[in-house]
Amino acid sequence: MFEKLLSFSRHNKMALLALMDALLLPLALWCAVFLRLGGYWDPKLNPHLWIFMVPPLWAIPIFIKLGLYRAVLKYLDDKIIVTVFLGVTLSVLVLQGVIQMFAIWAMPRAAIIIFWVFAMAYIGGSRFLLRGLVRRIDVVDAPREHVIIYGAGRAGVQLMLALQAGREYRPMAFVDDNPELRRRTFRGVAVHAPEELPQLLKDTAAKCILLAMPSVSRGRQREILESLERLRVPIKRLPGMADLVSGEARVEELKEVEIEDLLGRDPVPPKAELLARNIKGRVVMVTGAGGSIGSELVRQIARNQPSRIVLFELSEYALYAIDQELAQLAPAIPRTPILGSVIDYDRLSQVMRAFKVETVYHAAAYKHVPMVEHNPVAGIVNNAFGTDTTARAAEDCGVDTFVLISTDKAVRPTNVMGATKRLAELTLQTRHARGSRTRFVMVRFGNVLGSSGSVVPLFRRQIKAGGPITLTHADITRYFMTIPEAAQLVIQAGAMGDGGDVFVLDMGEPVKIIDLARRMVHLSGLEVKDERHPKGDIEIRITGLRPGEKLYEELLIGDNVLATDHARIMRAQEYHLSADEMASLLQRLRDACQRLDAPAAFALMQQAVHEFRAAEATQDWVTLQG
C-alpha cells in the first residue's frame, strides 16, 4: 500500500501530507489538554470543542508558505527542523490569539506550550519517519553496490550523502588516516583505520573503494593507491577540487583512477613572470595546434593574455576542435585558425607577416616511432625540414622567439623519429650560431600522459576488453609527465634562454612499463594471469621490441648540464654543426627526399646526427614493394 502511495503524482502526495497534518494537529492539541488535566476532562471545555478542529485552518497555509510540502521526503535533511519550528510556532501564536479573541478561559494556559511540543514532535517526526520508510523501500526495490569510502573529511561526507540519496551505491564504511576521526559515525556510517580494510571488505561485501580526497597532494594519492593495490578491488575517485569548485563536476560523479594518480608527482608552481614573458600582449603562433601538446599549449597561452593566438594546423578536424574549445575557454582573446603545412614556406611567411607574429611554439611533428620508422622520407620532411622551414620563415618575418618542442628520443636516437627531432634541434642551433636575430630555444622531454598513441589508453582499452595487454619488452622503461605540466614547463623554458639553448625538463624517475601494466590491472579489481596466478584475469603478453624502439630513454647526450632558476628545468650543453656543414647536409638530404630515395636519405641522416644508431629492421614500406 505504501509503495502505491509513493507512485502518486507530486500534487497528490502534497495533498496527502496536508491531510495527515490536518489530523495530527487536532490530535496534538487534544493530547496536550488531556495531559495538562491529568487524564481528566473539564466539562467547561464542552462548548468550545470546535477549537480542537480549527488549527489546520491557519497552520496548513503557513506550512505551504514556508515550503514544507515542497520538500521531497527522500531527500529531507536537518534543515526541515527549522521549517517545522517556524511553522508550528506561528501556528501556536495564532491559536493563542484565537483563544483570547473568543475568551476560551477554560483552556489551560500550559496546554498551549505542551501543544507546541506535541505539534513539533508529530509534524517533524512524521517527516523523518516517512523519509526512513521511503529510503528503506528504495533500497529493497533497487539493490545497490556496496562501497567503502576512503576519506572521512568534508568531501567524503558529502559523497556519502549523495550516494545514500542515489540508487547506484550504498556506502558501508569510511576509512581515514586521521586517528581523531576513528569510530565516529556519520549518518550510520562508521570511520575505520586503513589497516581494517581487508576485513571490512569481507564483512561488508564491498565491491569498490571510492577515494574522497580531492585536495590531497598527488604524491599522497600515489601512496594510498599503492597501499590499496594489494586488495585487488576496483578503485574510483572524486573529481579534483578545482572541478568541484568550478561546477564542472559534482560530488557524486565518480571517475576511474587516472594514470596521473598512479605516476604523477606534485607539480612545482609555475613562475608567473616566465609564463607571461613571451605571451602577454603578444601575437603567439602555435604550429600543430590541434595535437596533444599543441592544444595544451594553446590552453596555457590563452590564460596568459596574448593579444592574439594564431592556430596553425594541417588537420582540418583537429583545427576545428581546438578553435571551438578556445572559443569557449577564452572568448575575449582574438584567435585565428589557419590551415597549412609547416613545409610550406610561402604560407608560413604569409601568415607570420599578416598577423605580425612575435612568438612561435613549434609543436607540429610526426611522433609515432613505428610509423615514422617505415615512412622515413615523410618523417624527415615533416620533422626536420618542417622545423627548418618554419624557423626560416620566422627569421625572415622578424619573429622574436621560436620554441621547438623536442623529445627525449632525440638523445642517442635508435629510430628515425628521434633522429629527425635531433636534426631539427641542430638546424636551430646552427641558425643561432650564425647570428640570427630570432631567439631559438629547444625544450626536450619524455612521454606525456594521455597523449594520442600513448601506452596508457591502449592498456585501459585492453583491460576493458579482457586482455591480453601487449608489451614489447619486460624491461622497457619510460619517463612520464602530465600534459599540463609539460606545457607549462615548455612555456617557462622558452622564456629563459638567450638563444640556441637546449632545455631539458626534469621528468622524475623512469617507470617500468610492465609494473605500470600490473598496477592498472590490480586497481581495476583484477589479477594478472601469470605463472604464479594461472587463473588470473588479464594476461601480459610480450611481443618483442619494435624497429627503432629503445629499452630506455635518455634526456642528455652528454653529462654537461647546468641548473636554471627553475627546479625542473635544466640547460644542456651540446654540440652543433657549422653553417657550411649543415647547409651541405641539408641540401643532399633534400635532394634524396625529393627523389623519394629512402636508403640515401637514411644514410645521410646517420651522417648528420653523429650518435644515430639505426635499427637493423628499419625499412621503408614503399621501397620494399619496389
UniProtKB/TrEMBL annotation:
<protein>
    <submittedName>
        <fullName>Capsular biosynthesis protein</fullName>
    </submittedName>
</protein>
<feature type="transmembrane region" description="Helical">
    <location>
        <begin position="14"/>
        <end position="37"/>
    </location>
</feature>
<dbReference type="InterPro" id="IPR003869">
    <property type="entry name" value="Polysac_CapD-like"/>
</dbReference>
<dbReference type="InterPro" id="IPR036291">
    <property type="entry name" value="NAD(P)-bd_dom_sf"/>
</dbReference>
<keyword id="KW-0812">Transmembrane</keyword>
<feature type="transmembrane region" description="Helical">
    <location>
        <begin position="110"/>
        <end position="130"/>
    </location>
</feature>
<dbReference type="Pfam" id="PF02719">
    <property type="entry name" value="Polysacc_synt_2"/>
</dbReference>
<feature type="transmembrane region" description="Helical">
    <location>
        <begin position="49"/>
        <end position="68"/>
    </location>
</feature>
<feature type="transmembrane region" description="Helical">
    <location>
        <begin position="80"/>
        <end position="104"/>
    </location>
</feature>
<dbReference type="InterPro" id="IPR051203">
    <property type="entry name" value="Polysaccharide_Synthase-Rel"/>
</dbReference>
<keyword id="KW-1133">Transmembrane helix</keyword>
<feature type="domain" description="Polysaccharide biosynthesis protein CapD-like">
    <location>
        <begin position="284"/>
        <end position="573"/>
    </location>
</feature>
<keyword id="KW-0472">Membrane</keyword>
<dbReference type="Pfam" id="PF13727">
    <property type="entry name" value="CoA_binding_3"/>
</dbReference>
<comment type="similarity">
    <text>Belongs to the polysaccharide synthase family.</text>
</comment>
<dbReference type="InterPro" id="IPR029063">
    <property type="entry name" value="SAM-dependent_MTases_sf"/>
</dbReference>
